[in-house]
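Bumping with the actual sequence this time:
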Amino acid sequence: MEVLSEIKIITFSSLILLVELGLGLSNSSSMATSVVKSEEEWRAILSAEQFRILRNKGTEPKGTGEYDKFFEDGIYTCAGCGTPLYKSTTKFNSGCGWPAFFEGLPGAITRTPDPDGRRTEITCTACGGHLGHVFKGEGFKTPTDERHCVNSISVKFASQDNPSS
């Protein structure tokens, strides 16, 4: 059990190091995903709801996600592939009913304008998993004037106090 705790601490330390190094990923929205799985492989590792949202670009109902009103120190990772996406220090209460962040980790988020031009979709750069949408100019007092509106089910939280969370 003691060895397992040490492994968890090392793993969380490695996660923090990746975050501090900027993941080494490109900010290019044309960058190919590095985690490639078949539909069957995704279905085997994701719940039905995770698959609907991450792979089929769904949206969870407003106010139902576990991270909407959750504010602890740590890192939010992709629920599909585990890639670090957001520091908790970039999360804010927007009152929209979904977790809101003002910026992602460098190179972790890919932006793609929706076909209708009204919104910009955000996905995990590593696996292409749908996270939600990014909105600009809404008047929130954030350093970027952006709101990344993210489905809770698209992310997992890794606490600084409990790396196995």
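The tokens above came from a reply further down the thread. The domain at 2-159 is CATH 2.170.150.20 (Metal Binding Protein, Guanine Nucleotide Exchange Factor; Chain A).
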